[in-house]
Specification:
Radius of gyration: 20 Å
Shape: globular
CATH topology of the largest domain: N-terminal domain of MutM-like DNA repair proteins
Helix content: 10-25%
Number of helices: 6
Order of helices and strands: HEHEEEEEEEEEHHHHEE
CATH class of the largest domain: Alpha Beta
Distance between the termini: 29 Å
CATH architecture of the largest domain: Alpha-Beta Barrel
Length: 305
């Protein structure tokens, strides 16, 4: 699932390419009998409302909240997109093939990447370009909320603070994770009600850098390691953005290109490989924490229980 760096990379791309442009039409083939009463375009009735609120408005900018893309419109509405497992938003010129009932890019290049062909939502812009959303597993969410009341919506309510905000300091970090004193640190870092935006990939990398085993109990972790963890969190997330996100799986940026953070992994999906920490003779191993994979060094990452 795209995490904070991938979402921020997409937001930055939207602001570079689509800001100031008007949405002239929207299309989707998302439909689900299980979403008939939901606030998502997978509900055909809701999509009619979505189309009425979105078409004709200008994109005034994009933002991120946790793992959500927020596209602010000139009419006081905000399009909310959660990419879930396999979603990613792209910008380019597309044409709808009526025979095959699919959208295809008009030019060869990254947009024609096989990972980008599962298009289930398209917004047509007034300059002839499109924002096309590819989502192989069709788990993503696209909705619309009133900008002034977005924090009250069920989509954003209850989210924890943003880890990259300047105001989010070590004291705030310690306070948030100690709300789950008996929790396993891997799960606690990924709890979106405590800290927003950290998921499976970046939690592994943060814990590797702070020398903490993913099964460590929060209340038993020394303050020194918590300090290392806080610093590692800030640095790792920023590094993820600098490298354009992680494309170990499906993620692609606004141009349909893969990110490069997967080339920087120290722990995630490196099972059986030598630990890359200087002077460490450990091996990266895999375990399961709360139903999710966790990758760690069996030597320098200490288990605090």
């Amino acid at each position: 699932m795209p995490e904070l760096p991938e979402v921020q990379t997409t937001v930055n791309g939207i602001n570079r390419t689509a800001k100031g442009k008007k949405i002239t039409n929207v299309w989707t083939d998302y439909r689900s009998a299980h979403k008939m009463h939901g606030e998502s375009i997978k509900n055909p009735i809701y999509f009619k409302k979505f189309k009425r609120l979105v078409v004709g408005s200008k994109i005034i900018g994009a933002r991120r909240r946790a793992k959500n893309i927020l596209i602010d419109l000139s009419n006081g509405e905000t399009v909310l997109i959660h990419m879930k497992m396999t979603g990613h938003l792209m910008y380019g010129k597309y044409a709808f093939n009526k025979k095959d009932k699919v959208w295809k890019p008009l030019l060869k290049g990254p947009l024609a990447d096989p990972f980008n062909k599962f298009i289930h939502f398209v917004a047509t812009l007034d300059d002839g370009h499109h924002l096309a959303f590819s989502d192989m597993r069709k788990f993503a969410k696209v909705s619309v909320v009133e900008t002034m009341h977005e924090t009250e919506s069920k989509h954003l309510k209850g989210l924890g603070p943003e880890p990259l905000e300047k105001s989010f300091q070590f004291t705030n970090f310690s306070l948030q994770i100690h709300k789950r004193p008996k929790g396993k640190i891997k799960q606690v870092l990924m709890d979106q009600t405590l800290i927003s935006g950290v998921g499976n990939i970046y939690s592994d990398e943060i814990l590797w850098r702070s020398s903490v085993h993913p099964l460590s109990i929060v209340s038993k972790i020394p303050k020194k390691n918590l300090g290392l963890m806080f610093t590692a969190m800030k640095e790792t997330l920023k590094r993820g953005i600098d490298f354009g996100g992680d494309s170990m799986s499906d993620y692609r940026n606004i141009y349909g290109e893969p990110g490069k953070f997967q080339n920087e992994h120290q722990a995630y999906r490196r099972t059986g490989k030598k630990c890359m920490k200087k002077g460490c003779k450990g091996t990266i191993q895999r375990t399961v924490v709360g139903g999710r994979s966790a990758h760690f060094c069996n030597v320098h990452q200490k288990l605090f229980k």
